């Protein structure tokens, strides 16, 4: 152990934005949207499992896994999955492992893990003590958000855009951070009066309006599975190639053209993750239902 201030300095260094997930706003929006689509059973279960600090609001704790990820080091690799450079596709067997090669240690593996914990244990008081279902709920809600952020399923070689230095208007940052935070921040300032609630409302309106014909397909998992993160990861890497990496080479300056063409992608991903989180929780907590996990 070095002197305390080295630990302190490292801590702040690690807290530099850009290595976090969808920023706080993104996760808050996703969980707020999800709340609106929960069934009565799911809402009751969520309220029962939430920590007191949430005051009954799931959205209040959806960034919790980002707050503890440097303290609970084992959870770091669970926020993303890296895919082979320039392949633009994702495969669970090939890609879902950490840098040490341990299988299932990636965002999709974590989604299966925490869904399994909740489905097997919620209605079973013996098993319930085996897992911390409060943590399982907070991890699951956060990771369903993360897997929808295109660059959380980015290339291995650039760490999902983390090593691609760009300018966002005048500010020096990296491409991953642009997608976690900067696009949402600029949208808030430019279009939503710096009010997150207004942005969430606009997305919710679109879900019931422009996207209403798509919602059922967003919610559905094939073969009646409780949870299906693999297609979400495939969508993400495809969007990463089509929109995130495109025209964002190292050293480039991203401004209006990039911002205005990518914002609709970000808003749709926030909508999809909210709807899918709710659909997943509804299946997990369907009373008496026995559904396959996988
Ligand atoms: C599954 O959840 C447990 C409890 O949080 C955790 O220790 C383990 O690392 C998780 N594994 C994966 C692959 O998410
Ligand atoms: C479950 O996890 C929460 C959040 O980390 C913690 O506050 C709580 O004490 C844990 N519960 C048990 C029984 O360990
Ligand atoms: C899904 O579940 C429904 C109702 O339980 C059942 O009728 C249907 O056959 C199932 N479909 C598949 C593909 O398993
Ligand atoms: C609403 O949907 C339209 C059409 O898909 C899209 O162009 C627009 O960006 C969306 N707005 C929001 C706030 O999601
Ligand atoms: Zn995350």
UniProtKB/TrEMBL annotation:
Belongs to the nuclease type I family. The keyword Disulfide bond applies. PANTHER family: ENDONUCLEASE 4. This is Aspergillus nuclease S1. It catalyses: Endonucleolytic cleavage to 5'-phosphomononucleotide and 5'-phosphooligonucleotide end-products. Its EC number is 3.1.30.1. The gene is LOC107422158. One of its GO terms (molecular function) is RNA endonuclease activity. It is an enzyme of class 3 (hydrolase). Monomer.
